[in-house]
Structures are given as C-alpha cells and as structure tokens.
Amino acid sequence: MSAKAKIGVLGASGYTGAELVRLLLRHPHVDIGLLTADRRAGKPMAEVFPQFAPFDLPTLQALDAVDWPALALDLVFCALPHGTTQEVISDLLKRAPAMKIVDLSADFRIADPAAYARWYGHPHGAVELQKKAVYGLTEIYRDKIKGAQLVANPGCYTTCAELALIPLLRGKAIDPDAIVIDAKSGMTGAGRAPREEMLFSEVSEGFHAYGVGNHRHMAELDQEFSLAAGRDVIASFTPHLVPMNRGIFSTIYVRGPKAAPEDLHAVLAKAYAGEPFVYVLPFGKLPQSRHVRGSNMTFMGVTADRASGRAIIVSTLDNLTKGASGQAVQNMNLMLGFPETAGLEQVAMFP
Amino acid sequence: MSAKAKIGVLGASGYTGAELVRLLLRHPHVDIGLLTADRRAGKPMAEVFPQFAPFDLPTLQALDAVDWPALALDLVFCALPHGTTQEVISDLLKRAPAMKIVDLSADFRIADPAAYARWYGHPHGAVELQKKAVYGLTEIYRDKIKGAQLVANPGCYTTCAELALIPLLRGKAIDPDAIVIDAKSGMTGAGRAPREEMLFSEVSEGFHAYGVGNHRHMAELDQEFSLAAGRDVIASFTPHLVPMNRGIFSTIYVRGPKAAPEDLHAVLAKAYAGEPFVYVLPFGKLPQSRHVRGSNMTFMGVTADRASGRAIIVSTLDNLTKGASGQAVQNMNLMLGFPETAGLEQVAMFP
Amino acid sequence: MSAKAKIGVLGASGYTGAELVRLLLRHPHVDIGLLTADRRAGKPMAEVFPQFAPFDLPTLQALDAVDWPALALDLVFCALPHGTTQEVISDLLKRAPAMKIVDLSADFRIADPAAYARWYGHPHGAVELQKKAVYGLTEIYRDKIKGAQLVANPGCYTTCAELALIPLLRGKAIDPDAIVIDAKSGMTGAGRAPREEMLFSEVSEGFHAYGVGNHRHMAELDQEFSLAAGRDVIASFTPHLVPMNRGIFSTIYVRGPKAAPEDLHAVLAKAYAGEPFVYVLPFGKLPQSRHVRGSNMTFMGVTADRASGRAIIVSTLDNLTKGASGQAVQNMNLMLGFPETAGLEQVAMFP
Amino acid sequence: MSAKAKIGVLGASGYTGAELVRLLLRHPHVDIGLLTADRRAGKPMAEVFPQFAPFDLPTLQALDAVDWPALALDLVFCALPHGTTQEVISDLLKRAPAMKIVDLSADFRIADPAAYARWYGHPHGAVELQKKAVYGLTEIYRDKIKGAQLVANPGCYTTCAELALIPLLRGKAIDPDAIVIDAKSGMTGAGRAPREEMLFSEVSEGFHAYGVGNHRHMAELDQEFSLAAGRDVIASFTPHLVPMNRGIFSTIYVRGPKAAPEDLHAVLAKAYAGEPFVYVLPFGKLPQSRHVRGSNMTFMGVTADRASGRAIIVSTLDNLTKGASGQAVQNMNLMLGFPETAGLEQVAMFP
Residue B2: what pLDDT? Predict the structure, then answer.
C-alpha cells in the first residue's frame, strides 16, 4: 500500500480523464491522489461520470487550488485542452520541480518550434521545456521514455498511422511520396465540450470527412514520417467521423518500390514480435475496430491490392485507450519503473 | 499457478460465451481448459471472436468429442441454447459426476415442472436434476449457491427486475397487484444466431416491443415474486429492444399501500448496503444503462411519481455481465470458494 | 402560381424548422416566403442545413428585420423556443393583425393561466391571446382548427399519448386512475442547441429516463385527459431517450373497469376509421417506431396483458412529423382551406 | 388513371424492393400492378414491410405463378439476387416479349462475357441478351437508356465513384494510374438476407473493410473507367461498412498530371450543370452522406490536398435511392417517356 505511486489527473471531467480513472482504479501500483476540473470544482467525480459512484475518489478541484507540496504526487497526467497546457506545465514544474508528467495534449508533440507555430497559429510558449519533452509513441521511443520527465503522448490518429508506417519507412520498404492515409474516428475523439456538430442527431446515420487538408495531426505525421524516412515526407491524410464512440481505423494505401505486399507484412511482423500491445494479423487478413475496443491493443493487417505494386494496410486501435489514456499509462509504467503492461490487461470488449 | 481451478465453457461461440472468456482470461484463480462450439469445432477461438487473437486459448471442439476424465475440469459454464441443455447436463453429470455447473440457459430456472411445461411447451426432461438446481440470483440466494453443484443462472430481464422488487415484496412495502415493469434491452440479449429481425437495418433508428403478454422470463418473475410476497403475484411486464448492444433498463411502476417512496428507497438501500455489485443511488436520482456497461454492477434508483402513492424505480445492468456471464462468474466464485468479486472488478466503460 | 399561399417559418435553423421546410418545399399550394434565424441571419439556409443546397430558398433573416406588410404572408409557423414565443406572437399580431399562426412551442397549449404559471414557473405573458388559441390536436379538434387564427400545435409526447387515450377516456372505457405511460423519444426531440447530455457519446449505446415526475408535457396531458374524462386525471408518465433520431414510442398500461382489451381496440378502430394519418393495427399487433419514420402517420396497437383486466396500448409517431412539423402543416391545411393531406403524402422511410 | 403505366416489382421483400414501392406509391404516372416474393408468396406486403399497411398494394406472389399476359405490365423492376436474374429475365422475355425491364442486379452490367466469367466465377447465362442491355448510369448514358428495353442499373458503389470520375477521365484531367477510392457504405447495401456479420451487435460501434482486393463492383469500375479513359484503368478500391443504414461515401484521391484541383472542380461543375440529381458543392467544400438521405441526389465536392498536385474528391449518395431504386425509377422515367424527375422529388431527410 505505502509503496504505491500517487498520481494526479488534470482535466478529469473529459473523456480521456475518465478513461485514465477507469484504468488507474485497477492499476496495482498506483493510487489516485488528485482529480482536477476547473468548471466542476467541488463536485464529486460521480456527478460528472456516474459510473464511478461506487468508488472512493478525490473530489474534483480547481487547478489553481492544488497544494502541490502537500500532495507529493509522483506523476500527473495532463488531459487539458490544447494551447493552455504549455503554461500549466511550465507553472507546475516551478512548484513541483521533480514531478513527472505525461501530457495528453498536442502542446509538446512538435519538436520544431517553427513547425509548431505554423500549424497552431501562435508561437510555442515553452520552448525550453519542449526540448526536454519526449514523444511518447511507446513502441518506437521506449528507451527515451524510461528516462523522461515530460512525455508528450501522441495523438490518436497519429499513433494508429505511425505504428504502421514508421517501420516501413525506416526499412525503405515503401515509396514515401505515395502514401494515402484514409482515417476514420469514433466520436469520443472530438471530446466532451458541446458543439452542434457533435450532437447525436448531427452524427448518427451518416458519415463525413473533416479537417481535410489541414488537420493538426498532420504536423505529427510529417515529423515522425520524415524522421523515419530520413527525408521530407508529406502523406495524404483525410480524417472522417464514424457514428460510433470508440475506435480509430486507418486504411493506408502504399506502393512498395521493390517490396511485395508480403514483404511489407514481414517487416511489420518482425518489428512488433513480442510487443504486448501490437498484434499483426496473418498476411491477407484485416482487423476491425470493434475487436480492440476498450483494450490497449493496436491490431494491424496487410493485404495486396489488385493493382500490382500496391498494398493496403489497416491499422486500428481504441482512440481513448492506446490512442490516448492507455498509452499514457503505458508511458507512466516505463517512467515509474513498473511492468509495462501493469493496469492495461483489460481484454477488448466485444460485443 | 498449480492451484488454479480448471474451467470449461460450453457454447463459446455466442455472446455470453465470449463474455465468459473476457472475464475468465483475467480471473486470478482460474484457467480456461475447454471451449466448445459444435458448428465451429476445430477452429481457433480467434476466428469466431477476433479480439482473442493475442491470447492463448484452447481450440474450439465439439461437445461430443470432449474427454471429460482427461480434462478434469472443476466447473463448466453451460451457455447453450434453451431446451437442449437439460439433456447435455444430464449426460455430462453421468460422465463427470462431481462436476460443478453454472447453467446460463433457462432450463433449470423454473422449480415447478408444471410451470416449466406450461411456459416452454414441453415437459421438463430432467426433473430429478431440477430439484438439485439452485436459482443463481446471487445477492438473494448466496448461501444456497455456495453449496450447490448446479446453479441455474437467472435471465437478464429477471435479474434486473428481481433485485429491485424482491426486497420490496418481502417487506410488504408495495402492492403486489399493481406492478408494471417496462423493460428495455440491448441487442446482445437476442444472441448471435442470425435472424432477419436482428439485422442492423431492422434494429437501428427505431424502437419496438416484443413478446408482449408471453415472454418466457415471466415464468421466472412469477416464481420469484410469488415466493417473495408469499402469495401469487402476476406483474405486467413488457420487453422492448433498444438500438444498443448492452444494457437492461427497467422502469418499474409501483404503489406502496402505506409506504412512501422514500420508504421504498430505504428498504432497497438497507437490503444492498455492503453489496459489491448493487449500488442504490440517492433518493430521487435515477441511473443510466451506459454507466454500468461492461461491469458486473446493478445500479438502481427510486423516485416519487407525482401521482400520490406511486413510485418509480429504475434498475439497470449490463445484460452480458451481471445479466449473464458476470453473475455466472460471481456464482462460480461462491461455488469454488474464491472471493466473490474475483475477476469481476472491471470498471464500467463509459463512454 | 399566383394562387399559392405565402408562408413564413420563424426559427428555421432548428430541427422542426428544417422539417417544415422539407414538407413545404413539396407542398402543392404554398411558397416559402420567409425564413428567420436570429443567430444565423444573413446566411443561406444551405449553410445551416446543407440538404437544401439544391433549392432556391429565402436567405435567413433576423426576426426584428422582417418587413411584415411588404411580405404579405398568409401564415407563419413559429418554431421558436418556449417562453419567448408569447411576446413574439403578440408583437407580430400587432404588425400583421390578420396573420394566421401555427405555434410549435408550448406557449399557447395550456388554456388555464394558473396551470401555465405552475408548470412553467412564470405568469403567462399573453393571457388574452391564449383565450383565442386552439389546441392543434388535429383529429380531435379539427372543426375548431378550421376557424382558428392561432393554433397551438401539441407536443410530440402528448400527441402520441393523447391520440391513443382521449377516445378511451371519452368513452369511459378505462380506469382514469390507473394509467401508466412509459414514453420513449428519439434525440431530435431535444432540439439542436448544444448541451453535453445530447452529444453522440453521451447518448449512443445506452438508455435513460429524464424529467421523471415533472416533465412539462404533463401539463398538456392533464388538461386533455381531464377534459376527455370529465374529471381530473393524473397519469403516470415517464419520458426516456432512445439512441435514435426520430420517433416517439409510448407503451401505455391501462385497466378497463368493465371493458375487455378487445373492446378498447374497437373504440380506437372506430374513432380513427377513415382518418388519413392514424392507423390502428389489428388487435394483438403492436407497431414499431421505424415504420412511421418521416411520415405523418400515427400507428397504434392494442393487446391484452396476461394479468386479467389489463391491456397494453402502443402508440408511435415521428416526433418531427406528426409530433411537430407534419401536424403543423396538417393544421395549416385546415386553416387555409387546402385538402388536409396536401404536402403530407410522404411514405414512411424504412429502412 | 387509365393513362398510368402498370409496373411490377420482382423481389419486393428486400430493401431495394421496399424502396421501389416507397417511390412508386407517390409516382404520378404509374400504378403498381405486381409484387413478387417467392418465400413470402401469399402474404400482404404489410407483413414484410409494415410501413405499407395503410396502402392498398397487390398481395405478394411467387414469380412462377405470375400470369404475364393477363397483367399486361409496361415495365418490371427486377430486384432479385445476383446470378439468378439472367435466367429469370430470359424466361420473362419469352413470355412477354415487349416488356421493358430495369434490372437492379449485377447480371447485365458487364458487357464483356469474359470479364463477367472472371469476376463471377461462372459463364454468363444470357450472352445474347447481354448485348442488348444498356448500362443505366443515367447522367452518362441518358440517350441510350431512352431507347432501351433492358437497362442494367449500376451498383451503389459504382454509381457514386463513376459519376465523380468519368468526366475527369474523359477530360484527361487526372492520372488514370493513381486513383484511390476509399468507399464507405451503410448497412442496407448488404441486403436483408440474415447473416451473422450483419447483426446489429456485429456492426454497431465499430468499423471495418471487406472484400478488399476482390469486390465485384470492381468489374464495373474497370469497365467504365477504361471506357472513359480510352485505355485500361485499374483503380484501388476498398469498401468499408459504416454503422448506419443508408449512404455511400467515397473519398477519392487523384493526381492531376497538369490540372490543378480547381480545374478538376470546374470539369465536374460543368459536366453536371443543369442536372437535377447531381449537385457539385463550391470548391473546397465537401458533402456529408446524411444530407442526401432518402433523396435521389448525388452530392460531390473537390478540394486540394496539401501535397502538391493531389486533390481529394468526395462523392456521396443514398445507396437505396440514387444507388439503386431511385436511379432505377429515373431510368424507367426515360424508358417510358415521363419527365425524368417524376416521383423522385423527395427532399433529403435530415435529421
């Protein structure tokens, strides 16, 4: 009991906050010591998410009212809106300089301040801190994450596409100039702040694309794909919304300059052999998003396109788990020296 | 490790089978030693439910081909279709006389053979065995279940309504002649065998009642309500289908002959104080089905109707978990001497 | 062309506004001369509802900016929020004293100012005007509607329940003290103004009750049921939300003091013989909400409950059509002397 | 009345059959004279599709029992399963040689018997008849359709993609070797015959691809794209299933060898100027499937990809209307000399 780490969740009233609490409540090595939610400060967590009513959880409090030294947290998850997070974390580290942080916002994902400014429309507010941040795509940057104080947890779309494409780009197995990522997301990816286009009646019984040509996750894709390929890569990327709650499903069209589709499959199968949270299906089989729901798994499959020289890759994960809070816990496990799978053993829930 | 109990699931290719496997895979005290599915015999479980691909599970086999002595199972869950189960279990107990069994079908729920014959249209095929069966509504029959060899796991609708009404009927707190149960179920309650009326396009974007006036769960309700009241009780009960996967939601209209709505709430709050899987909301608050999804919890609430002397009770649970496989594991825990909550600690998954 | 009536829609950016436009665009005897939407003034209707892009429609304008005399409208539909409408209509009638109005808000539905004040928490702001308003339940008040200047279109829940129960109460066929209406609604009934509890992820994959014990539609039910019975009637009424867009589905539990369930069916079948928009199924059959979707139909069915002396009635309609805009057009047809079914012949769309 | 054409629907118990009846019931120039459904022969249409209960429709009959000379139909829609239709139509034309036919199956869509045999796995059974069949993509083959006796109505995926791409390929505006069509369909496209993978619980709350690399609609795409381009074209085409009822949504990735994205838009805008059922959005705007639901419209949009030289085109339609039964009625209108839009003026139903 006394050996458990003490953890905080900043922004506990959103969906990624709730998912963190779901996972942390059953984590064998942590206790939840702090939950913040500015607009709901003073309320019990069960008022915001009634599924937690049977559990004993800290009352929601305002971020400004936190007594950091008294709490003596080991790590906080920062699930606050993009843009505001830079300031919050800078300030937090002044008050609690040894605090470890996993940030689920986009604020520390882009290493290059110029690229950040271009995509987000304003200069980065914590450039020095940015230099220390480690990009938290666990399977790719595991060693760096172990020693990091600040981990920038990747986006849901980007985790899904990058896990599939980074090994192929590193291995020069595909043409970097002919990548098409047609991505589909469940609605929880849009968060819990009410807007007309997120109402049930605007979303159900239909399908649409959004952010075409300028979705901010492109900045992450460009950064990681270019790093992996050793040259500039700009992929076509179109996000869509599916009338479902959870899931990212990416249909990825690639051309192997020399590599056959079977070779691409072999690259991925080798890259992820032994990984607990990435499962590569047998060649020719493609996964469904529902079969990873609620788990921290990424399922991916490779098949040949009938047009010669082309292959189709499908990668899928739960946007709230491996695409956000699950990967955040996975990173916490590395940062605090726990087994990487601790608290993440939930089996996918289908149906 | 060696101390783990060895468990079988008969009928693993249906939804309750999959839910049993989801729960048992993470149960600390059991190993899965057998999975049967006649029509899919010889296939890996991952072909039937791809979410299990990352796990090491027994290959599906035909029931007839099972070598019971060699397997030496401690307990089997029987998730086979209603009607066929009587014969299967009779036969099984001849081959493995000490086997413990939790039956998820309706075959052993009705204690009175005449009532069984009336509701099911044919005489019961194992009347002697029926006498030994214990009705597995855990919170009500916990002590009997501990010593049972054969537990008849209750239906999903009935668990939901009985947990709410049995304490009130036992306490003479409501009029037994004025009970209306308007029940709504998610689609997994209808099983996985394809029928036209279960297709996505027949179910989504609409709502309907079914089995009005003659749903077989009424036999269970009559039996348990009459037992609780000490006299014959026939409640109005109408099941409906909701375009969702999981959840039973019962809106129950009662009249308290003398008791005020607050008194009804007090009866339920007292009955379930300390129960790990029943949570009674504060008076005047009503639960939502989504907040118990994937968990073994029942949430219930009581509020006053504006018509004087009437109260409205809402009871909700996940039909695959507390309504079927979760309660089955809860019963197994009692039968095998494990902590009652073992393997059932999943927090509800919302959203 | 010149003989067509000129129609306005106040509040065209909400769902009932869109449904009015859908119907009016194909109405043979009207032209749409005005669409207002204060917050979207100056925008084309296609920006608010892209399905109308191929049609030639008036630009949205602010209500204050309308030049009533110049427009010379024959009738306006008022689809504005409850509470604000009294003032708007009082003011409108000062500027255009001969204007006919169908009001889709709740503002003029309650004849008794004291009842209005009790349910809505403030005194009625146009008591004189209220006296002239006719309650627009078409099949029941057809003759009065023909001569009305101001019609108060009923609520969706109330239309559904009242069409089923008024003939039975008028005929003394049921016990007025034992009515239970368990009502379920699709999400469009909640309107288009964004609130957290209407987000896709809050609504899908679950079921819940709301407004239990104090939903404002109860005021209408009390008024109309009491009128029909010739004495005070207070029915139990519980509204629920279904994860679907369109549809009201009411499961109604009644006791016939003397009448058998078959007699109740006969009363309804007789009451609605020849009605174009009410279809009574054969005795023992119950309708589904999806089979009236997009049409102006109400389907209703009566069956016996197994408890003797009780019957179950199901009534269902599309909340945006017969439950709001369709019935509004039906009333307009009467007020302007058109055939009652003009513009309302859409066949239900299933699947 | 006497001037109305008399129409039959073969296969009226499926979804395209129901959609034909929905449209034909309100068509000003036709009467429905025959509805067949072999397995439901003798039943009223209302038993198969209860939404039609208020209408007077012919009883379903078996195809073999039809007395063709006595009925004297002007045209039949053939909505029978693929494969069986060749024989049915050959036989039908022997009995009623002047009958006009719109076939909604795939049996007569592929002009080249060798291509048919390759894709469908068996030789075409009516090669002579195939030569007379006209491919019913109305906007592209309008003149031929007017004089045809047998029209092969295109598939839903193919109508959606071909309307977008044929003008661009004809105009040499895009590279024929770099077309990627990522297509998504609602569930009604899978028909009404029950299979496990179409159950609500298998489809909702998830997303998946199917038929990757060998979907039969590819045969149509190859035929029409190659015709339009004047050379062989093999596009990448991946169909997916969306948890919704109606809608095809195609995200199409193209490269213009010289043409800028704005030029592609101009080609489409020009091609469809004046077309009643194709609406091209302003450049840079993309449509949503829900905004064409229930209508015969195709909405399409073009936007620039951020990778230079690439454009993204979205084309969307209702798979049951413009993707099947609506286009079939559109073709009937041409074949029988009615206004092309007769009976097809339904405004899309959103929400």
Answer: 52
Say if pTM beats, i.e. exceeds, 0.90. Answer: yes
Buried-exposed string B20-40: b where 16+ CB fall within 10 A, e elsewhere:
bbbbbbbbebbebbbbbbeeb
Distance CA D297, CA D350 (A): 13
What is the distance between the alpha carbons of residues C90 and C97, in angstroms, rounded to a whole number? 10
Q: Does D115 touch chain A (CB under 8 A)?
A: no
- Taking the C-alpha atoms of residue C50 and residue A165, their distance in angstroms, rounded to an integer, is 36
Q: How far apart are CA C329 and CA C347, in angstroms?
A: 16
Residues of chain D positioned with their CB less than 8 A from the CB of A314 = 209
Structural contact between residues A185 and A160, judged by C-beta atoms closer than 8 angstroms = no
Q: What is the ipTM of this complex?
A: 0.97
CA dist C165 and C176 (Å) reads 10
pLDDT at C1: 43
- Asked whether the CA dihedral B231, B232, B238, B243 is positive or negative, the reply is positive
Angle, alpha carbons A244-A247-A248 (nearest 5°): 120
For the four alpha carbons of D272, D273, D276 and D280, in that order, the dihedral sign comes to positive
CB atoms within 10 A of CB C59: 13
Residue with tokens 């307009």: C332
d(CA D332, CA D166): 23
Mutate to test the interface with C, among B204, B207, B319 (most CBs of C within 10 A): B207
Q: Are B19 and B321 in contact (CB under 8 A)?
A: yes
Residue D116, pLDDT score: 94
pLDDT in tens, A29-72: 999 999 999 999 999 999 999 999 999 999 999 999 999 999 99
pLDDT tens digit sequence for B86-103:
999 999 999 999 999 999
Residue appearing with tokens 């979207």:
C40
How far off is chain D from A247, nearest CA to CA, in Å? 7
Pairing mode, strands D75-78 and D100-103 = parallel
**So what's the pLDDT on residue A1?**
43
Residue count of chain C: 351
Which letter, b or e, does each residue of D39-65 get, where b requires 16 or more Cβ atoms within 10 Å of its Cβ? ebeeebbbebbbbbbbeebbebbebee
Cα-trace Rg, chain B: 20
> Residue C320: what residue type?
L
Cross-strand pairs, B181: B237, B252
